[in-house]
Each structure stands twice: as C-alpha cells, then as structure tokens.
Amino acid sequence: MKSIILVGGKGTRLRPLTYETPKQMLPLVGVPMIECLFEWLGRYGVTESVLSLGYLPDRFIEAYPTNVIAGVRVSYAVEPEPLDTAGAIRFAATQFDLDETFLVVNGDVLTDLNITKLIDFHVERGGEATIALHPVDDPSRYGVVPTDADGRVTAFLEKPKRDEAPTNLINAGVYIFEPSVVDRISPYGRVNVEKETFPALAADRVLFAMPDRAYWLDTGTPQTYLQANIDILNGRQAMHAYTNIVDCSWRHPTSTVDATATLTNSVVDENCVVGANVVLEETVLLAGAVVQSDSVIRSSIIGPGAVIGRFSQLGATCVVGANEHVAPASELSGEVRLGGV
After folding, report:
1. Which pTM was predicted?
2. Is 10 designated active site?
3. What is the pLDDT of residue 121?
4. Is residue 47 a part of any domain in this protein?
5. Rounded to whole angstroms, how far apart are CA atoms 51 and 35?
6. What residues in the chain have per-residue pLDDT under 70?
7. In terms of Cα–Cα distance, which of 249, 220, 219 is closest to 232?
8. 8-state DSSP, 106
9. Are residues 6 and 86 located together in one domain of the fold?
10. What whole-number distance in Å separates Cα of residue 60 and Cα of residue 81?
11. Cα(314)–Cα(107) distance, rounded to whole angstroms?
C-alpha cells in the first residue's frame, strides 16, 4: 500500500525548537521522529510514501537524499502555497497518481496502530474513507467522531466543548482513502479535511471509523514531546528498536556526563556535556547542549547547542532554543520559551 504523510505544518506549539527544524525531524531518544513513523509503516507493508511538505521542505530532502526513510521509498510533494490538510492530500495524490486505496497519516502522530486491521475494517464497510479513532479523557482538543453500531460516522465535530462532546473517541490522524475522496477536494485554495471533507463524507454516509486502543500520542506540544521520549525510555511504545537505555535514561556515546550527575527519565543526545552534580528529571537535551555544574532541570527541553549556566534551576515546562545561553543561577519555570528566529 502507498501512503501520504502530512508534515507541512510549522510546529508553532513547539517553538522555538521548530524555527529551524520541522517538528517531525526532532529526535525521539536520538532518532528523528519521521524515521520512527516510517519504521511503523514498513512493519505493515507500506513500501511507498509521499511526504507532503510545506514548511522547511529542504530539511527533509537534504536529510534523505536517497529518497528512502527507514526502508520505505519516499517522494516529496512540496506545496507551492499553504493548502491545508485536504488540499495537501489532493496535491500529493495528484502529483504522484495515487489511483488505488491509500493510507494518510498526520505526521505529528506516534502510534502502533495495526494498519492491517484498519484496512480490513475499511474493506468490510465498503465506504470511501475510514478514520482510526482513539479514546481520550478530554476530547475538546480534537475532532470528535460519533458513529452508529456499524461504524458509520454520524457527525464530525471539531473541538467541541468537553461537556458537549457526544463521545470521547477522537480522530487519531490515520485514515484509509479511496481515490474518489481526492475528486471531492477542491483544487483551488485551502481545504481542511476535518472541517470540510469529513463532514461532507459523513453527510453522504460513506465515512466510517474504527475505534482502537493502540498506543497513540499527538507530539505537537512540549509536554507531549517530552511524554513521547519518556514513554520510549520506559518501554511503553516501540516505534523503533532502541538500545542502551539504562535505568530509564539514555545518553549518546559521544556525550559527556559527569559521574556525579543524576538522570531520571532523561535523554542526553550526541555531543552534549552534563557537569558535576547536575540533576536531570524528565528532560531532553538535544545535540550539543551543555548543562553546567550544580544545575537542576525538570520537565524541560534544551535545544541544540544551548548552554545552561551553573547553579541554574529550570522547571516545568521550559523550552530553550538552539544556541541560547541561560545565565548562571537562573531560576525559570512555567511556560517559558527562550529563543527566536
């Protein structure tokens, strides 16, 4: 089966990390998120994929010049202008002649969903499109998808109020499409799949949805990006065969970590330096970050090449951008974002 992966978003919720790096290129325990996603696709027989690119497309093209990611052959569809989700799907599908049933995946999503099971469900129902659903405690942040007993979608409600949501089953960002769906999408301007395409399909009674309790996480915020790394460290998801995780933390072989430092549920990427008496808890240090001695960092992300001065204390949820310098003895906590373009 072929697939389209939507990776065109700007990752605004993860700024400043995404000013220079698309969010799908951010690493999960040292492995780019996009590679974890493609390993999952390859596991279920996806052999060809189109990356739908909009923001910083050259970062992907330069990283994978052989047009292969984790064993899956890829093509690049670079939007001439922002087309939104449905517009991006149509552009990619028409650029590369996807004329058979195909898979669509939101590139923010980490999941171990059984794609074969989703395809079988789609074929049995005989609709034009099928959505994978996932249960959540608070559906107000997502597209809520009520269905009838056969799995036919009866409505598509984008981000309803929590007490007004008819179900806690939300759009998990993984779809099976027939080529006929592409013909429904206007070739002009921006078209949104959640707000326009899915409601139209539901109104015509040709949209189905399959509930599933597979691992699932939307990695688009600092909190969920950290959670994705922590889940890997604790063996709660297996998008990639990770090695060298010790006591629920991981350090790259090229990093330098002082023997007196304490790491808990933390990631120290390549060429990082962690000084004496440093405490890292549920923290990710990206490549080349430096944490000087006697600092304490909790539930934070330290960007590439950033330096945290000695005796500093950073608490949930600080995000320090690339090459930023935090002065010694700084005390930061809350929704702190340091760094810009």
Report:
1. 0.91
2. no
3. 97
4. yes
5. 12
6. 238-240, 341
7. 249
8. E
9. yes
10. 18
11. 30
Domain total in the chain: 2
- pLDDT averaged over every residue in the chain: 92
Pick the catalytic residue: 2, 10, 117, 159? 159
Task: Give 41's contacts (C-beta < 8 A, 6+ positions apart).
Answer: 3, 49, 70, 72, 103, 105, 115
Q: Does residue 37 lie within any of the structural domains?
A: yes
Please check whether residue 57 lies inside any domain of the structure.
yes
| Alpha-carbon distance values, 37 to 72, 150, 239, 265, 269 (Å) | 10, 30, 7, 22, 20
- The pLDDT value recorded for residue 223 is 95
CA distances from 341 to 16, 102, 143, 305 (A): 8, 37, 31, 15
| Range(s) of the domain holding residue 81 | 2-218
Instruction: Calculate ∠ Cα 136-141-143, nearest 5°.
Output: 80
**pLDDT computed for residue 143 by the predictor:** 76
Task: Provide the residue type at 325 as one letter.
Answer: H
* pLDDT (0 to 100) of residue 341: 62
Q: What share of the chain is helix, strand, coil (3-state, %, to 5)?
A: 25, 30, 45
Instruction: Please work out, in degrees rounded to the nearest 5, the angle formed at the alpha carbon of residue 250 by the alpha carbons of 299 and 9.
Output: 60
Q: Position 43: which residue type?
A: R
